[in-house]
Specification:
Oligomer: single chain
Number of strands: 14
Bound molecules: adenosine-5'-triphosphate, iron/sulfur cluster, magnesium ion
Radius of gyration: 21 Å
Shape: globular
Largest sheet: 8 strands, mixed
Strand order of the largest sheet: 8-9-10-5-11-12-14-13
Amino acid sequence: MPVAKRDSAARSVLYSDGMTAPAPLLAVEDLHLHYVSGGRVVRAVDGVSFTIERRGEAVGIVGESGSGKTSLAVALMRLLPKNVVRFDGSIRLEGQDIRALSEDEFRREIRWRRIAMVFQGAMNVLNPVLKIGDQIAEPLQLDGRLSKQAIRSRVNELLVRVGLSPEFATRYPHELSGGQKQRVVLAMALVLDPDVLILDEPTSALDVSVQAQIMNLLKDLKQDPGISMIFITHDIGLASDLCDHIAVAYAGWHAEYGPAERVLLEPRHPYARLLLASLPRLRATTPPQPMPGEPPDLTNPPAGCRFHPRCPYRFAPCDTDVPPPIPIGDGGHARCWLNDPGVAGDLYLAHLKEPAGVSHD
Ligand SMILES: Nc1ncnc2c1ncn2[C@@H]1O[C@H](COP(=O)(O)OP(=O)(O)OP(=O)(O)O)[C@@H](O)[C@H]1O
Ligand code: SF4
Ligand SMILES: [Mg+2]
């Protein structure tokens, strides 16, 4: 029994020829989130754009530690720490500009109800003295619209949905394995029936077989009830298993974004290519290539292209001119001058002539 929901009549976009199309479920454009720390500005999210067109789609956000993945999630949930000094750009949910909502409106209408999140390490912070069922039920109790009996059956329904029996409602967290705890935090995020679920490294603390079970559960939830996901991970292989689109995060940017298959097989940004080349592969004839250099300091990122100190393909404009997100033609983009024939000239897509990309073996 789903909880009572808002009127979800999808808004639409009006084209110049008078035709309309449904607005994307979630459209993020030129989003910025900067912190101040020790008197210096940390540009954790610095002009990020991506779209989830419809229900049941998943976007993977892949990148090194410190590239701004969790900060993006924090911005979408608007759970901003006090030291945020810049938060702007556009976040549209079915066409509605939810960044323009007041904090009170956002809390009442959006956070947890329409966009929910499983935090990095969430399974380790379940309340040890509260039964699982009570922890899942808490938002419904605060909401106050359902009877005790209805809340109990909603909790049981959610436990079953995440692959646990209703009997788990009466257990305490210490009586659960890591995989079972992760299922519980998923049930907690699903309790208000959100449209978009953000998962921040949901399987990184789990062994490979439990990881596979959780990934299968996420695939099921994509299908039914058709939850859209933002899946944050270091592991591009995991992201490719679940996601329709992939964004490769680098130093507060999305260096590359596009359909998962194209990003994996024909990456257009050198960082994405090197990331893929650094992965061990079963039947590869060449060994994995280590990624050169170190991630930059986000309080003082390199001028021009943020990847230029590590990039084997850099050329004249790279250390002075900031590459914008250059459209690829499949709805995606790459922030690399090699993708602009007007700038790159003979070097246009030169890096694509070298072998890269992953096979699925
Ligand atoms: N509250 C904060 N105040 C100041 N700086 C912060 C804050 N939160 C994150 N940062 C900084 O912002 C940058 C991005 O951090 P973020 O946690 O978003 O990275 P991440 O990609 O999620 O990393 P990881 O893979 O390790 O989880 C880092 O330089 C981090 O130190
Ligand atoms: S813009 Fe230049 S430095 Fe940056 S990734 Fe492209 S080639 Fe490399
Ligand atoms: Mg993180």
